[in-house]
Amino acid sequence: MAWKKAELLAALKELRDRTDELMGLLDQQEDGVDVAPESSWSFPYTPESGSCTASFRIASETALRALLNPVQYVFECLTGGSETKALVALVQSGAPDQLGKQETLSIDELASRCKAVPDRLRAVIRISARLGILQETKPLSDVWTHTPHSLVLRKDSSAPIWAMTSWSQAFVTKIMDKVPDLVSQENAGKTGVELACGKASVFEILSEPQNADLSTYFNLTMKASSPFMAGGVADDYPWEQFGRDATVVDVGGGIGSQMIVVAKKHPKMQFVVQDLEHVCQGGRKFWQTQMPDDMSRRVHFQAHDFYTPQPVELPNNLRPSVYWMRWIIHDWDDDKAIKILQALRHSVQPGAKLLLGEFVVTEHLSKVAAQWMLSMLLYGGTERTEHEYGVLLAASGWKITKLYKTRSPLDIIECEAI
Length: 418
Ligand SMILES: C[S@@+](CC[C@H](N)C(=O)[O-])C[C@H]1O[C@@H](n2cnc3c(N)ncnc32)[C@H](O)[C@@H]1O
Description:
The protein is built from 20 helices and ten strands. The protein is α/β, with parallel strands linked by helices.
């Protein structure tokens, strides 16, 4: 295979241009600027930063691909899953919690606290440290300390991302094995969940009483994604257009974690979070025990199956100003997605507004969208392009009025009932 110098140079030039762009954005921004705590990992915190960071990432990946031997590159892609497993093992060993936030510990001390085999824990930690999760105080000293990225894996982190490792180990691993089978024609029409568990949908599994822990891990995983999703949702969509006292109906809202940042930013807004009864129970408990009164007072849970028409009345006689659905439509195939959208459409007047929070597929798939695309395939849903959303919505009595790109990886598809 001929070595193409021009391709490598183009990739490196692209990376340099994207670096300049990002530095330009940083230059315009004051240090210590006030950002929503939930968004604090995305800098620079400007509306353009989302697409700029995405372009930088694509450019750096392209440049690296051009620099590496192609076989090495593919070899590394095929072993990528080991990083996920190492992180699952790290969290399940208890190391992020056993190591104090400011502490430094040798591998033997840490392994003893975790009741772990030192050599094996060290291997798991070394893999994690390459990702910036824990670090050695000096190169090869075998004395370890936290990094900002390992701190978020502690159980006391405000984003319970640790729960994602339990969700991954208890459920995702099991169904991921089915991906190759899923692609085969003989399984057309079946989901990965059906092939692995014999159940129609992941939500059926989560509603079974014996899977209460699994359901908690799932809901906490949803909540954990708020830090890097909800800031963009709150800041880059004009929620104020619905009025100070507006009521947002969060359909399939889980425990309502997506609305935390919007509720903070709009202190008079009310929220009705609808989900299956067992999820609403967890949601009520979460808001009552973990959120301040002035916020939990404004969040009302209502059991509702989104395949059925909207309830005639909302709690507290509230009247809906806008409907919000994050990561609902992508969970389902076209037929089921249309049923959900139609059930809502039949309950509202022309002109009613619906906002879908989704990853809209573009030519360059973001890393998180690519990862979720596989999960959605396993659940029976899919990530869609703007055009595909348009077709789905038109078949259900809605039209897209605007696509909002936010500084988070989440896009907002604004729709109106026709
Ligand atoms: C991917 S989660 C998204 C949760 C929430 N919107 C968020 O972004 O954090 C999908 C949600 O749909 C809910 N769900 C599934 N089937 C449902 C149904 N038939 N009616 C209402 N909610 C349902 C699940 O319980 C779950 O909370």
